[in-house]
Design a protein that fits this description.
Layout (H helix, E strand, L loop, with lengths): L5 H8 L3 E4 L5 H14 L9 E4 L21 E7 L8 H16 L2 E3 L3 E3 L5 E10 L9 E8 L15 H5 L5 H13 L10 H5 L7 E4 L2 E8 L5 E3 L2 E3 L5 E2 L3
Parallel strand pairs: 1-2
Antiparallel strand pairs: 2-3, 3-7, 4-5, 5-6, 6-7, 8-9, 8-12, 9-10, 10-11
Helix pairs in contact: 3-5
Length: 244
């Protein structure tokens, strides 16, 4: 598989791009960059993207390890700085996840997993916040994405899949990454309908679930991003889908 071209990615997206052969974690590097930028004054209009062919300490939610075959998938972190109060950050992350799912034509499992129609995991999203100078406002969100693109075997992970497996062919990663970054840049997390895309592609709503000590039917998604389970809000946790 050919390596990703940082210069071409930057020209196509308008963002500075750092394409690495290997790093420990693109999100860790992204947070370092975010801290440096926030400490230097107002953030630039176009924030960086860090993409790696391989990670040695990739992370998923709740500190889980995210492993990936070298140069087969997309492992990237993009810096985003919406002008929103900090409590609206989870809502923004759901809107960004929905934009990714729309571009990939896949589905969503609350809070931030991208899955196929059989609930097999295609991608995970890890969002981390770096505080800015204004208390209570979002400083910079580092949105990390691990997307299974051309990997076809997942030892020990029977619930995983990839675009290549779903489409029956290899996928050109450079063009795909450009499409995903453009989709993220088109999201307005302050829009009244920002969560409509997530609801439309949900594999969670309407099903029996177990999450954070609650068990019941996922009845809705609140405007702050909370999952409603039998009408009760759940703000964080891992969902187990109990019904088809």
């Amino acid at each position: 598989m050919s390596r990703l071209d940082a210069r071409a990615l930057s020209l196509s997206t308008g963002r500075p791009v750092d394409a690495l052969a290997c790093c420990d974690s693109t999100n860790r590097l992204g947070r370092e960059i975010a801290r440096d930028l926030l400490g230097a004054g107002p953030l630039p209009a176009r924030l960086p993207v860090i993409v790696a062919e391989e990670q040695t300490a990739g992370r998923g939610r709740l500190g889980r390890l995210w492993t990936s075959a070298p140069s087969m998938n997309l492992l990237f972190s993009v810096l985003l700085a919406p002008a929103i109060p900090l409590p609206q950050a989870p809502r923004a992350v759901l809107a960004w996840a929905a934009a990714l799912a729309q571009t990939l034509d896949c589905w969503l499992k609350w809070p931030n997993d991208l899955v196929d129609h059989q609930d097999r995991k295609l991608a995970g999203v890890l969002a981390e916040h770096e505080p800015g100078p204004v208390a209570g406002q979002v400083g910079c969100i580092v949105l990390g994405v691990g997307l299974n693109v051309n990997q076809r075997e997942f030892p020990g992970l029977p619930g995983a899949t990839s675009l290549a497996l779903l489409r029956g062919r290899d996928v050109e990663r450079q063009a795909l990454l450009v499409s995903l970054l453009r989709a993220l840049d088109q999201v307005d997390p302050t829009a009244a309908d920002a969560l409509d895309g997530w609801r439309a592609r949900s594999r969670t709503l309407g099903r029996q679930v177990a999450v954070a000590g609650h068990q019941g039917r996922a009845t809705g998604l609140r405007e702050d991003g909370a999952l409603l389970v039998d009408g009760q809000p759940v703000l964080a946790g891992d969902v187990e889908l109990l019904s088809p």
